[in-house]
Specification:
This protein is mainly α. 77% of the residues lie in helices and 0% in strands. α5 packs parallel to α10 and α6 crosses α12.
Length: 264
C-alpha cells in the first residue's frame, strides 16, 4: 500500500544538531532567490543530498521549502495587491496539469537517474545565466506588445518541469511570462509565486504517497524558506536588487555545480 510507505519517512534517524542551522540558512537563502528570481533549488537540492538524503527523496522533500516559501511570498504580494488573480488563474491551469504529470514521472526514476537529472539541471541553469537570459528578462523593453498564443502550451511544459524536478523552474516561469505573456519582471514575479505554490500543492501529495518526502529536514528547510521569501517579497519590486541577484545566482549555481562534480 502506498500510504504506509509514505509514513515511513515521517522521521529520519541520525539528524545532527549542526544540520538544523544549515537547513534554515539554506532554506532562507533559497526562499529569497525563488521570490526575487529563481534557482533556490540549486541550493536546497544539493544541500539535502550533502546531508545524506537520497536524491529521489531529496527531490520530494525540497517541495516543502518551495511550498512554504511560495505561500509566504503570495501572502506578501497579496497584501501589496500586486497579484492579478483572474489572469493568474487562467494561466495556472496548464501549469497545474503539467505539474501533476511531471511529479508522477519523477516518482518512476531511481536515485541514479534523479541525480543525473539534477546535475544536468544545475548545468543548464548556469548556462542560462551565463548566456544572459536572466539579464534580458529584467528589461521591460524586451517584452512583446501582446500575449503570444504559445504561452499556454509553454506553461504546460514549464509545469511539467516544475513537477518533475522544480530546479530553476522559476526561471522558465518568468521567461514564459515576460517573453510570451507581455509582462515585465515586476508584473511576472507575483504570478510566478502563485505558480510555485500551485505546483507544490499538487506535487507534494504524489511524492508523499510514494514515500519520497523526509519530513524533519523538509520542515526545517521550509521554515527557513518562509522567512527568506517573506523578506524577499518586501524588496522584490526594488530595481537595485535585481542586478545583485543576477550575479549572486551565477555564483551560487557555479558553486553547486562544482560541489556536484566533486561529489561524483
Amino acid at each position: 500500500m502506498l500510504l504506509p510507505e509514505g509514513l515511513l519517512n515521517i522521521w529520519r534517524q541520525g539528524m545532527n544538531a549542526w544540520e538544523i542551522p544549515m537547513l534554515l540558512i539554506g532554506g532562507a537563502f533559497a526562499g529569497a532567490l525563488n521570490t526575487l528570481a529563481s534557482s533556490g533549488s540549486a541550493i536546497t537540492l544539493p544541500l539535502l543530498i550533502l546531508l545524506g538524503v537520497p536524491p529521489g527523496i531529496a527531490n520530494g522533500t525540497n517541495r516543502l521549502g518551495v511550498l512554504l516559501g511560495s505561500f509566504s511570498a503570495v501572502i506578501s504580494f497579496q497584501k501589496a495587491k500586486s497579484i492579478p488573480w483572474r489572469k493568474t488563474l487562467v494561466l495556472s491551469a496548464p501549469l497545474a496539469t503539467g505539474a501533476i504529470l511531471g511529479a508522477r514521472a519523477a516518482t518512476y526514476l531511481n536515485d541514479d537517474r534523479i541525480q543525473l537529472v539534477i546535475n544536468i539541471a544545475i548545468f543548464t541553469a548556469l548556462a542560462i545565466l551565463v548566456i544572459g537570459s536572466k539579464r534580458f528578462i529584467f528589461l521591460k523593453e524586451s517584452r512583446q506588445d501582446k500575449e503570444s498564443r504559445f504561452i499556454l502550451p509553454a506553461l504546460f511544459l514549464v509545469g511539467f518541469w516544475t513537477g518533475f524536478i522544480v530546479l530553476d523552474s522559476a526561471t522558465y516561469m518568468i521567461l514564459a511570462l515576460v517573453m510570451l505573456g507581455s509582462m515585465d519582471v515586476t508584473e511576472a514575479n507575483p504570478i510566478k509565486a502563485v505558480f510555485l505554490l500551485t505546483a507544490s500543492i499538487l506535487s507534494i501529495p504524489i511524492f508523499f504517497l510514494e514515500g519520497k518526502i523526509d519530513w524533519v529536514p523538509g520542515i526545517t528547510l521550509a521554515a527557513g524558506g518562509a522567512l527568506g521569501s517573506w523578506w524577499a517579497a518586501k524588496v522584490a519590486l526594488q530595481p537595485w536588487i535585481k542586478k545583485w541577484i543576477y550575479f549572486l545566482l551565477i555564483a551560487v549555481v557555479s558553486i553547486e555545480l562544482i560541489v556536484m562534480i566533486i561529489g561524483n
